[in-house]
Amino acid sequence: MASKDESPGCSSESEDSGMSSTPVTNEKIKTEKTKAKKTPLLVKFFQRKWTNVKRGVFEKAGLSTQSEEGPSSIPGANCAETQNQLKTELSMLEEHAPPSLMQLLDVLAECKLSWTPVTEVWLRVFIGNGETALDQATLEKMGITHVLNATPAEDAPGRNIPSREAYYQSLNISYYHVAAVDEAWFDISEFFHPAAGFIQTALQNPEHKVLINCAHGVSCSASLSLAYLMIHLDLLLENAIDRVTRVRRIEPNIGFLKQLALLNANLIEQRKLKLENLIKGH
To answer: Where is the Tyrosine-protein phosphatase domain (predicted)?
Structure first.
């Protein structure tokens, strides 16, 4: 913003010295400002570069860019160009500095969107609250075919249905329950891969739509959604958070964020190992 471009420190230093700004000084200040402005642009550039590298590898192998296994599923990878692409991605992974928990919390706090009952956060993937998940009219209008319920119990207080499983069966909706508790001490990580697998299997059919719900649609369901994007769509945690918070306000508790950060680190190590093996021709 213009107000930040005007540097009080620079002007006061010039006044204290009793000297007017010289062309050299102005040029130096201008250069420093340009560097500061370009920093976020450079970050975006490398993120796009990384995506393009992976896309090129996928296309050469005749695979979808949303391949479950990512670049590691490519057999061979012998041509020089593909080798260079693999090496570029490996180098980026090795140089990647994961954000701290405080930085992740800051990113989440930057989202100024108002809370809504349900949001499509990825193509055919929705995050919603408990009421939405039990509203037959809404489910039918949205075309939901699969529900991933991340609430502690499967009962539906105040509703005349025997169980959620029976309820969704009557609606011809596939159902998966994760007995999650929205507390920092709760180990939600044990459900990351099973829940992500449920979502991925559902989306193999282009007609299917998945609703991931918890009580308020901001913590348990959001954490499982982020895990899916990381495990099956090869996104880094910070990129997954960025994608979701563009359209929905989410608030994973600090314990869940720590577990997602650990998942992120493990996935990076797995990708690095697979890339190293591909480069070596294993």
So the answer is: 116-269
Q: Supply the pTM of this predicted model.
A: 0.71
What is the Cα–Cα distance from 115 to 264, expressed in whole angstroms?
27
CATH number of the CATH domain containing 245: 3.90.190.10
**How does pLDDT run across 205-260, given as a tens digit for each residue?**
999 999 999 999 999 999 999 999 999 999 999 999 999 999 999 999 999 999 99
Asked if 257 and 105 touch (Cβ cutoff 8 Å), the reply is yes
Check: CB of residue 264 under 8 Å from CB of residue 100.
no
**For the chain, how long is the longest CA-to-CA vector?**
83
Whether residue 154 sits in one domain with residue 51: no
- From the list 42, 41, 63, 44, the residue with the least C-alpha distance to 54 is 63
What is the spatial distance between Cα 36 and Cα 72, in angstroms, rounded to a whole number?
36
Q: Where are the alpha helices (DSSP H) in the chain?
A: 2-5, 8-17, 23-61, 80-95, 101-110, 130-133, 136-142, 164-170, 192-203, 220-232, 237-245, 254-280
Separation of alpha carbons 62 and 20, rounded Å: 63
Q: Provide the annotated active-site residues.
A: 214
